[in-house]
Design a protein that fits this description.
With about 400 residues, the protein is α/β, with parallel strands linked by helices. Helices cover about 30% and strands about 20% of the residues. It has twelve helices and 17 strands. Strands 1, 10, 11, 12, 13, 14, 15, 16 and 17 form a nine-stranded mixed beta sheet that branches. The chain has an eight-stranded parallel barrel with strand order 2-3-4-5-6-7-8-9, surrounded by five helices. β10 and β11 form a beta hairpin. The relative contact order is 0.16.
Amino acid sequence: MLTDRTALRQRLDTATGHLETPVAVVDLAAFDANAAELTRRAAGKPIRVASKSVRCRALLERVLARPGWQGVMAYTLPEAIWLVRAGVTDDVLVAYPTADRAALRELAGDPAVAAAVAVMVDHPAQLDLIDQTSSPGSRPPIRLCIDLDASWKPAGPLHIGVRRSPVHSAAQAGTLARQISVREGFRLVGVMSYEAHIAGVGDDPPGQALRGRAIRLMQKRALPELLERRAAAVRAIGEHADLEFVNGGGTGSVAATSADPSVTEVTAGSGLYGPALFDSYRNWKPSPAAFFALSVVRRPAPRIATVLGGGWIASGPPEASRLPTPYMPEGLVFKSDEGAGEVQTPLLGTAADELRPGDRVWFRHAKAGELCERVNELQLIDGDTATPAPTYRGDGRAFLG
């Protein structure tokens, strides 16, 4: 969907004009439109919302109230416990293995929470760690999910995708499932396989046509291999457990992953906010919904306007794609030898000549939920009205801090 940036800028300025910068906002119209499109792309399969990409209870509750959205994929066990006890959800999958002994003891000590949370594993040593925190006979069963590595290994040592689980083959998945099945105090309920090389890699990087073609060719070849291997792994695991769910995908592959018969649910989160990295995807570009504004504080020269702050850099490889994007007014770019600074950021372009101290520049973060680590609240924009909602940080929660 094309965005009328002039109208959007005016609306955001009006809604937040009474607030000091930095100010972060989520446009609810775009958020809801993105949620609806993700539901359409999921083609009837439920979507588990990735909390890492949202990090705001009010918005998690908003999307979970929509048809087609069911359950949360959390990124830490303490977060999962908090979300259950806060009443946000009673269905949480923790996407990464945990070594948080205090949280494991808390999980084992609360039957209601233990019944609502599934913990990720990919090795028997993780079961040993859980047993060290609570004896198997003294706790409710700990619900487990096996992380099946979705990476593509076309030949020899070649590995395409992120380095996640050591469980890659169907045989390895079946072996781990068998090992879990004979351990007291555990119940295997799910399988997850996140195809990061498909869902998390834009296939149309700006100004890199050859790289884009190479990415599309890789994805075209990698997906059929994953579909076959995932189905075989689910069958192998199913010999030792009655699975409640098989989870896959991310915003960038919702449609493709939903078409996999072995998958029962998909995950999405970043697409709700529409961060800048998704501008490099061909199959679907979510509407920009999350922004932050910084104030112009000086004009050091013609065609340069300097804002206070700006160094809100996204995680990942240290490259330009991880910088925030100056979005409104259009036509602003970073100074190449300064980039986005911690305390000041000079912006170049003809649009800078229209800016004066006190004016605002609106940015888009490269990623989604990481924006929330910078602010205590998001302003939820409905028309030209802003309503504050605490982020995780504003709720006093810094789960990876």
